[in-house]
Amino acid sequence: MSENTIPYKIYLSENEIPDKWYNLRADMKNKPAPLLNPATCKPMTADELGVVFCDELVAQELDDTTPYIEIPQEIRDFYKMYRPSPLIRAYCLEKALGTPAKIYYKFEGNNTSGSHKLNSAIAQAYYAKKQGLKGVTTETGAGQWGTALSMACAYFGLDCKVFMVKVSYEQKPFRREVMRTYGANVTPSPSTTTAVGRKILEAHPGTTGSLGCAISEAVEVATSNPGYRYVLGSVLNQVLLHQSVIGMESKTALDKYGVKPDVIIGCAGGGSNLGGLIAPFMGEKLRGEKDYQFIAVEPASCPSFTRGRFAYDFCDTGMICPLAKMYTLGSGFIPSANHAGGLRFHGMSSTLSQLYHDGLMEARAVEQTAVFAAAEQFARVEGILPAPESSHAIRVAIDEALRCKETGEEKTILFGLTGTGYFDMTAYEKFNDGVMTDYIPTDEDLEAGFKGLPVVPGQDQ
Amino acid sequence: MSENTIPYKIYLSENEIPDKWYNLRADMKNKPAPLLNPATCKPMTADELGVVFCDELVAQELDDTTPYIEIPQEIRDFYKMYRPSPLIRAYCLEKALGTPAKIYYKFEGNNTSGSHKLNSAIAQAYYAKKQGLKGVTTETGAGQWGTALSMACAYFGLDCKVFMVKVSYEQKPFRREVMRTYGANVTPSPSTTTAVGRKILEAHPGTTGSLGCAISEAVEVATSNPGYRYVLGSVLNQVLLHQSVIGMESKTALDKYGVKPDVIIGCAGGGSNLGGLIAPFMGEKLRGEKDYQFIAVEPASCPSFTRGRFAYDFCDTGMICPLAKMYTLGSGFIPSANHAGGLRFHGMSSTLSQLYHDGLMEARAVEQTAVFAAAEQFARVEGILPAPESSHAIRVAIDEALRCKETGEEKTILFGLTGTGYFDMTAYEKFNDGVMTDYIPTDEDLEAGFKGLPVVPGQDQ
Question: A202, A276, A433, A460: which has the fewest Cβ within 10 Å?
Answer without folding.
Answer: A460
